[in-house]
Design goal:
The chain is built from eleven helices and 14 strands. It is an alpha/beta fold and 370 residues long. The chain has an eight-stranded parallel β-barrel, surrounded by four helices. A two-stranded antiparallel ribbon has the order 1-2. The structure holds 2-Phenylacrylic acid.
Length: 370
């Protein structure tokens, strides 16, 4: 029987075990540059089978929050190289998450203070986080009204994903990338009817709404090799005011199209991101979703996330529900989570007040077992 602590090959990635660090936004990268404490934070967690970094902007236009990192500037890549060197020195495997927020942004964060871009000019009822440069004080702000992307602009954004992937692997030393296709950001906005009102080849039918996602995945795979590429999807999350009228056939189509591409893994958020696993008004059959991928020949690892504890995770791997499990909050407060699981050791509680922004406190000061 396969256990949570067995190794796993996912495309070109070799995981020492099936405990994965979920991507977690921490807002500690001023000017989008990862800091020395960022390297410490990830290196402390290097015993995970796979570390997925916090969401990282592929371009200035892809930025949506204060102090989140990027993959498009020299200093950003230098900062990330310190991170990957520190993780590799400890024998870890690390991929970075490629992020374009689309409409989940604010004019203050955009090039020339322009409107954020989106499939359609539909404002999200959502908040972003800004920092006053003069006082350093942070505050939440409503996301700005976006403008609809012209179809002639789309190839440039697809190119930005591929360029960021190349920067990540060739310059910053990452083992691969995860494409952020979840949580109501740009790719999810194209996928779902609540945000996509387009009448061109990128809107309307399921095939058209999935087109942007598939163009991005193919171009990134061409740039760095499909075996180094994963994708995160969230079929029914309400995060960032996103909704689809009929997610089951949409995601089964996506699964069938992804299957032949030879990706390293598919990473699925089950339910509401960081919230309930079951949403009575948004039913979804995850087994059918996975079956659509496997029946179409998909061989990537199947990683799941959302509210898993040790028992549920061990059970999910033993039963074949998933190949690996991503943990968020427990991994923030337990850098040695794998060892604690294996030894049945108690877990440190997490401090929600230090999740976003700040410095070392609540970031690199959670104790490991002696
Ligand atoms: C929390 C705060 C800001 C961004 C996501 C990248 O939900 C995020 C995020 C989470 O995927």
């Amino acid at each position: 029987m396969t256990t949570l602590y067995d190794p796993l090959n996912a495309g070109s990635l070799h995981l020492a075990n099936r405990v994965v660090l979920a991507p977690l936004t921490r807002n500690r990268s001023p000017d989008a540059i990862p800091q020395p404490i960022t390297a410490t934070y990830y290196a402390q967690r290097a015993t995970a089978g796979l570390l997925i970094t916090e969401a990282t902007a592929i371009s200035h236009q892809g930025q949506g929050y204060a102090d989140v990192p990027g993959l498009y500037g020299t200093e950003q890549l230098d900062g990330w190289k310190q991170v990957t060197d520190a993780v590799h020195a400890k024998g870890g495997t690390i991929v970075t998450q490629l992020w374009h927020v689309g409409r989940i942004s604010h004019t203050d964060l955009q090039p020339d203070n322009d409107a954020p871009v989106a499939p359609s000019a539909v404002q999200a009822q959502s908040k972003t986080y800004l920092v006053d440069r003069k006082t350093g004080a942070g505050h939440f702000a409503a996301t700005s009204e976006p403008r609809a992307l012209g179809s002639e602009e789309i190839p440039g954004i697809v190119h930005d994903y591929a360029a960021a992937a190349r920067n990540a692997v060739e310059t910053a030393g990452f083992d691969g990338v995860e494409i952020h296709g979840a949580n109501g950001y740009l790719i999810d906005q194209f996928l779902k009817t609540g945000a996509n009102r387009r009448t061109d080849d990128y809107g309307g039918s399921i095939e058209n709404r999935a087109r942007f996602l598939l163009e991005v995945v193919r171009r990134v795979a061409d740039a760095i090799g499909a075996g180094k590429v994963g994708i995160r999807l969230s079929p029914v999350t309400p995060a960032n005011d996103i909704v689809d009228a009929d997610p089951q056939p949409l995601f089964e189509h996506v699964a069938r199209q992804l299957a032949p591409l030879g990706l390293a893994y598919i990473h699925v958020i089950e339910g509401a991101t960081g919230g309930p696993r079951e949403l009575p008004d948004r039913p979804f059959d995850y087994e059918r979703f996975k079956k659509a991928y496997r029946d179409a020949g998909g061989q990537g690892a199947w990683i799941v996330n959302n509210g898993y504890d040790k028992e549920r995770a061990e059970q999910a791997v033993a039963s074949g529900h998933a190949d690996a499990i991503a943990f968020g909050k427990p991994f923030i407060s337990n850098p040695d989570l794998v060892r604690r699981f294996q030894e049945n050791a108690p877990l440190n509680p997490w401090d929600q007040s230090t999740f976003y922004g700040g410095g070392e406190k609540g970031y690199i000061d959670y104790p490991a077992l002696g």
